[in-house]
Amino acid sequence: MNGRASTRTALAITHVAFEDLGSLGIELTRAGFQIEIVDACTTNLPNIDTLHPDLLVVLGGPIGVYDREAYPFLEFEIELLETRLAAKLPTLGICLGAQLMAAALGARVYPGSDGRELGWAPVYAASGSVPTWFRPLLAPQLRLLHWHGDTFDLPAGTTHLAGTSRYANQAFMLGAHALALQFHPEVTVKGLERWYVGHANELAQAGVLVRQLREESGRFGPELEKAARLFWQQWLEHLFTHV
């Protein structure tokens, strides 16, 4: 990723400020990307040049794809993603971002029938063969952070990458240019302190003790940060070699 990488740009769309790029932001900076962050809630999304950034990242948030009447900007995000994906440009969606990508590809997004998935758990490979760059997230001892109540059907034409014991569709890719992750490989132990405050009501309603979640984050988070660093590096290398 030398040479041209120093001029590359990444646009990140956020929904709540504390659900940020995390470890991905660190790796993008190391790779020489110029990063721009916009807030979906207040930005005039139709004015965004969907095709301009070298990489588009749509991050998570505590709302559903089907909440478009309450949050009209979701419709603009889906349209933006439809244009971006049709152009086969590098795109990443995490949690809500992955659900928006699924919707943009014509798949159904809906509340999960097996309840809220909130906490640390492994993901398993959806098939016997997964890309080399995805394998750091499949290490047997690794636990990833899950924080969602919705799920989605696998969009037509995509490759199923990973699932969990509760929800099968946790990750998919479209060609070599687009990746959707229902879980959160980007989180850091330090950054999660903001999540505990921002999602305090949700945690209380789910009966999750912040003290216990913090303890689990301290136990599993450092290994995730190491694995995620390798994953981001390998995925970015793959992404800009094959598109």
Structure description:
With 243 residues, the protein is α/β, with parallel strands linked by helices. It has a single domain, classed as Class I glutamine amidotransferase (GATase) domain (Rossmann fold). It is built from six helices and twelve strands. The protein has an eight-stranded mixed beta sheet, with helices on both faces. A two-stranded antiparallel sheet has the order 5-9. The chain has a two-stranded antiparallel ribbon with strand order 6-8. A hairpin with a 3-residue loop joins strand 11 and strand 12. Helix 1 runs parallel beside helix 6 and helix 2 packs across helix 3. The N terminus is likely disordered.
- The strand order across the widest sheet is 2-1-3-4-12-11-10-7
Distance between the termini: 13 Å
**Proportion of strand residues:** 15-25%
In the CATH classification, which architecture applies? 3-Layer(aba) Sandwich
Helix content: 25-40%
Number of strands: 12
